[in-house]
Each structure stands twice: as structure tokens, then as C-alpha cells.
Design brief:
- This protein has four helices and no strands.
- The protein is elongated.
- With about 55 residues, it is mostly helical.
- The protein has one domain (about 1-55): Winged helix-like DNA-binding domain superfamily/Winged helix DNA-binding domain (Arc Repressor Mutant, subunit A), CATH 1.10.10.
- Helix content is about 75%, strand content about 0%.
- The longest helix has 20 residues, at about 35-55.
């Protein structure tokens, strides 16, 4: 899993690592300077990308 995380771009990697640490999406949004909705969408896309990577 972490090999796949390391293939992500810098922002995506930061977002998913914060999510894995248990931070709420609103907190991640504040840290990243993005809206809550943008973080929700990015987390969804990142999880899909990681799922594909892990299955390979």
C-alpha cells in the first residue's frame, strides 16, 4: 500500500497520509487551503487510484 502511496504526487500524498492519520476532512481542507468539497473529491479519486495500484 505504501509503495502505491509513494507514487502519488506531492499534494495527493499529503492528503491521503493526513486521512490515514485520522484527521477529519474539514481539517485536511484547512491545512491544504482547499474547500471541504474539493478534499472529498480528491480523497475519492486518490482511493480509486490506490485501489487500482494495489490490485496490480
Amino acid at each position: 500500500m505504501y509503495q502505491c502511496i509513494n507514487t502519488l504526487n506531492k499534494d495527493s500524498k499529503s492528503i491521503i497520509l493526513l486521512e490515514l492519520e485520522g484527521l477529519r476532512q474539514k481539517e485536511i481542507a484547512e491545512i491544504m487551503g482547499l474547500s471541504h468539497e474539493a478534499i472529498r473529491v480528491r480523497i475519492y479519486r486518490i482511493k480509486n487510484e490506490l485501489t487500482k495500484c494495489v490490485k496490480q
